[in-house]
Amino acid sequence: MRFSLIILLFCSVFYVQAQTDSATKASGTSFLPPVSLYSGKVKQFATDNLGNIYVLTPAGLLIKLNSKGDSLNVFNEVRRYGNVYTIDVTNPMKVLLYYKEFSTVVMLDRYLNRINMIDLRKSGIFQAKAIGLSYDNNVWIFDEQSAKLKKIDETGRVLSETTDLRQVLDVMPSPHTLIDRDGFVYVYDDSKGLYVFDYYGALKNTLPLTGITDLRVIGKTIAGRRQNKLVRYTLGTLELQHQPLPEIIQDAAKIYITQQGVYVLNESGILMYPYH
Q1: What average pLDDT does the segment 3-19 reach?
Q2: Are 156 and 118 in contact (CB under 8 A)?
Q3: If you ran DSSP here, which 8-state letter would residue 83 be given?
Q4: Is the dihedral of CA 241, 177, 58, 78 positive or negative?
């Protein structure tokens, strides 16, 4: 019944959107000319709330740049634990690197010095694709084997966990994105949708927002890229916004949406398109 109501809600969203497409395009976000921040090949990158950029190179270096593209710090032990699956820079003072193949989380300080390492296998967690820093500087883990969202501390001790989600969900997600933001934990599977939990582990909402890449949460707004369009949805509204992206952003390998602008990864490096 709940899922049927959600589908009905989104049918209403798309109906409203069809009527307002022209208005959205006319009033949509425009961009200033891009600023080049990094030249060279990039495997992954992320930006923090201070405008710093974290670049993972094919050579196995993690480089921290300031908002102007100047190099600040380097972590050169990236390959010691395997291949980095996720970089979480929610808190610039505590950067998380997740090595999925070895179920290992490495924590770095603001200078990219290693300050801690967590072996999730010692916590009984062997199958996790999505991790993220919590508001209180612990770590959220979506444990697919036990079908639970868990919070662990720096020693790997489980502080809290949900009930078995197979008891409340018809289909289990296999999420690749986990974001803690303003009182909620967002767990995203691009083929099944977005699952929203509160800090006590209660499932608050399930939204069929599928097919979105580069998903970000800014305040109460979920933003990302669906094919060649920028997609925005604000919780508690009936408005799903679509805006065509400039062609050069459409072809990007990865984009990173922030309040200041859109960071773009292409073959030559990283550009930043400020909002007009």
Answers
A1: 38
A2: yes
A3: -
A4: positive
